[in-house]
Design goal:
Blueprint lengths: L2 H24 L3 H16 L10 E5 L7 H17 L4 E3 L12 H9 L4 E4 L10 E3 L13 E3 L1 E4 L2 E4 L1 H7 L18 E3 L7 E4 H7 L10 E5 L9 E2 L5 E2 L1 H13 L4 E2 L2 H21 L5 H25 L7 H37 L3 H8 L6 H16 L3 H15 L18 E2 L2 E9 L4 E7 L4 E8 L1 H4 L2 H19 L9 E7 L2 E7 L4 E2 L12 H20 L12 E4 L4 E4 L5 H5 L17 H4 L6 H17 L9 H10 L14 H10 L11 H16 L1
Parallel strand pairs: 1-9, 1-10, 2-3, 2-10, 3-4
Antiparallel strand pairs: 5-8, 6-7, 8-13, 11-12, 14-15, 15-16, 16-17, 17-19, 18-19, 20-21, 21-22
Helix pairs in contact: 1-8, 1-10, 2-9, 5-7, 8-10, 9-10, 10-11, 11-12, 12-13, 16-19, 16-22, 21-22
């Protein structure tokens, strides 16, 4: 299944999942999903900035030892005291029950004259009070009191709530013209309660009040001590009495700080889960896990911020808990699907590599088509197309190239330049040369393009006919292609991939993966040395790659800084020139001088003995020594003296030559530079472990 097919499948799975979720949200599961809205609202409402009712206090009568008639008597006395104080208004949010035989005419004079008194309209005193209104404290199913109605329709009349009736009777509040409170279905929402002053009835009745002490105040009188006689629990978690609830609602109405839910918000709340579901299904499936997490986090934080800002600034409640729940559900599903796809792609990648190495090209093509298109896959597909060509199957090679173009997008249409540069050939085989990018012991390296897929390659060019005599030329040619074929089997993240090898215009060439960056030779300058821990880590990567190559039966023979390419931007390292060193190693000039770089060679390589992977580990030890100190461990004025030093002398410890290098590095180098191969590390993996241990110690 290609990338487009995976995205289509993931999106279909996500659509099915979210459809079931929406059916539950809008259908039988709606009450359960409302809990998501409530949870988010409660968290935000707890932090809404409210202000207490101005110049207000609550006077509570302790009813623990008082009979009902005594409580009523204290109500009457307190009302009269505060009327004498010229308070602004008196509110009885929860007056005590009165028997049918109670003397209402006795209360008429107390309530009807002077300072206005407000009571709930269900109480018997409502017909005597200045104004009345309903006070309906009905919590939600979870026991939290979140909303209170402003109007109620009954008996053909619209009646206001008690807080609204008080506010409408206040000529200074101006709430009567506020359009937010003009509808029969208007509801305001509670958030948190800002406490107002409290007195006990005993303090007022026994100690008395100074004249005019509470003039212009709003006074609540009840028989409900705080918390103990709480009537409801707010979203903030506070337990409040009837008077405290009325005070909070009245403050919100009179100060125009009530939290409301306009009709357009209700419509948006109904549509939001479906809208967020569509967005999630369109944008999340088919993405990488990191992108899914990032997009989900940004979206969810954005939705929470929108709800918080509407609540804090405009006092509008917009419930986004359910939309967030839907979006999070699709995100989790997409994240899981991305992981499943990634595992399947990794398995397919491994199987494809094995099939390609075994020469089973059709199964390899089938497995690679199941992988995510990236540079690593493009490299393998390029090798696969060349393998099809070598098997005389040009139509299958073309199919591979067409698949690459389709999955990687349309290649640039810029026409390749056909001009030569600095004497370089314009074309070798099917490769168009652009410019020279380096030079080795036996030839140059050019940046070229394969016009079949417009892909950049590094082309190593060797004038093979100039370097070998006629009687040696055929053997060198066979050895060249045999070594290039061996190198072409190597597939490792730290080894330059060999795509192709050929001969044209009396020049042998190897087409390799092009890697931007520079050789580690740049960092052998004593003024530009890498940090010890970085040098050790890069050599550890090299040792891992050599271990892989040695297990494949391939020996490099020319490990040195110039053949280790490092891209500082993405911290990638690759070994180059596999397939070339063997040709160099077996060739001597007419004067008998060894081509290449003998200061990096192992004793057995200088003595022309049969080589094993231990020779590469010796050369890697020399490379590490130079990266740490800026000098190779063995130097001489001529080849004979150099060979003697390499085969007999021990180099000076690097810990004595540069601060910050732990003594353990000396031990690793001593083992890597041992004169006899079997005294060195058993393999590259063992050397890599030792180098990383040293790197960890050097970094601390």
């Amino acid at each position: 299944m290609d990338k487009q097919g995976k995205e289509h499948r993931d999106r279909l799975v996500a659509l099915t999942f979210v459809s079931v979720l929406l059916v539950l949200i809008y259908g039988p599961g709606a009450p359960w999903f409302v809990a998501a809205d409530r949870l988010l609202y409660d968290r935000l409402a707890s932090h809404v900035a409210n202000e207490p009712l101005e110049n207000a206090l609550i006077v509570s009568i302790s009813d623990r030892k008082l009979a009902p008639n005594e409580i009523l008597d204290q109500y009457g006395k307190l009302i009269q005291i505060f009327k004498n104080q010229s308070v602004k208004r008196i509110i009885l949010a929860d007056p005590p029950e009165m028997e049918a035989s109670a003397d209402l005419p006795g209360w008429a004079a107390t309530l009807s004259s002077g300072v206005p008194v407000y009571v709930p309209n269900e109480h018997r005193l409502a017909q005597l009070a200045t104004k009345s209104g309903f006070l309906d404290i009905t919590p939600d199913s979870d026991g939290i009191f979140r909303e209170s109605g402003l109007w109620r329709f009954g008996a053909g009349l619209m009646s206001p709530s008690l807080p609204l009736a008080v506010a409408l009777d206040n000529p200074d509040a101006g709430t009567g013209t506020d359009p937010r409170f003009s509808g029969a279905d208007d509801v305001i929402y509670l958030s948190n309660y800002q406490p107002i002053a409290r007195l006990t009835a005993k303090e007022v009745l026994k100690q008395g009040l100074a004249a005019g002490e509470y003039a212009g105040a709003t006074v609540f009188i009840d028989a409900a001590p705080p918390i103990v006689a709480a009537a409801a629990k707010l979203p903030s978690g506070q337990f409040v009495t009837h008077s405290e609830i009325t005070a909070a609602l009245l403050a919100n109405v009179e100060m125009s700080r009530a939290v409301i839910e306009p009709s357009w918000v209700r419509a948006l709340e109904w549509l939001a889960p479906a809208l967020l579901a569509i967005i999630a299904v369109l944008f999340l499936p088919g993405r990488m896990r990191r992108d899914i997490v990032m997009l989900s986090a940004i979206s969810i934080v954005g939705l929470v911020l929108i709800e918080a800002l509407l609540l804090a600034i405009w006092r509008i409640r917009l419930d986004l808990g359910r939309p967030i729940f839907v979006f999070l559900g699709v995100a989790i599903l997409s994240w899981w699907l991305a992981g499943a796809v990634k595992k399947a792609a990794v398995d397919a990648y491994k199987r494809g590599v094995d099939f390609l190495a075994a020469g089973r090209l059709e199964p390899a093509f089938a497995e690679f088509r199941r992988c995510k298109a990236d540079d690593a896959l493009a490299t393998l597909m390029y090798k696969l197309s060349l393998a099809f060509e070598q098997q005389a199957k040009p139509e299958r090679a073309e199919a591979v190239l067409n698949w690459m173009k389709r999955t990687q997008g349309t290649m640039g249409s810029k026409k390749l330049s056909m001009r030569g540069n600095n004497g370089a050939p314009q074309r070798l085989g099917r490769y168009v040369i652009e410019r020279k990018i380096g030079r080795g012991a036996m030839g140059a390296v050019y940046l070229a393009k394969d016009p079949r897929i417009n892909r950049q390659v590094a082309l190593k060019v060797i004038p093979i006919e100039k370097e070998f005599e006629d009687e040696e030329l055929e053997e060198a040619r066979l050895r060249f292609f045999r070594e290039a074929e061996s190198a072409g089997r190597l597939t490792h993240p730290n080894i330059i991939t060999v795509f192709d090898a050929g001969e044209d215009k009396h020049l042998a060439y190897i087409a390799m993966e092009y890697m931007p960056g520079a050789a580690l030779t740049k960092f052998t300058d004593p003024k530009k040395l890498l940090a010890p821990s970085k040098a050790l880590e890069l050599c550890a990567r090299t040792a891992d790659a050599l271990d892989y190559a040695h297990n494949q039966g391939v020996i490099h023979r020319d490990i040195k800084p110039a053949n280790l390419l490092y891209n500082l931007r993405d911290d990638s390292l690759k070994i180059s020139d596999f397939g070339v060193a063997r040709l160099t190693d077996n060739n001597r000039t007419k004067t008998g001088i060894i081509l290449g770089t003998p200061m990096y060679m192992s004793p057995e390589q200088l003595n022309a003995e049969d080589l094993t992977g231990h020779s590469d580990l010796f050369s890697l030890g020399v490379t590490l020594y130079e990266l740490l100190t800026g000098e190779v461990p063995f130097t001489a004025t001529n080849i004979a003296v150099l060979m003697t030093k390499i085969t007999t002398d021990d180099p000076a410890p690097v810990s004595n030559r540069r601060p910050g290098i732990p003594p353990s590095v000396d031990s690793v180098l001593a083992k890597a530079l041992a004169k006899r191969p079997h005294d060195r590390f058993v393999d590259g993996a063992a050397m890599a472990i030792a180098l990383r241990n040293c790197a960890d110690y050097a970094a601390t």
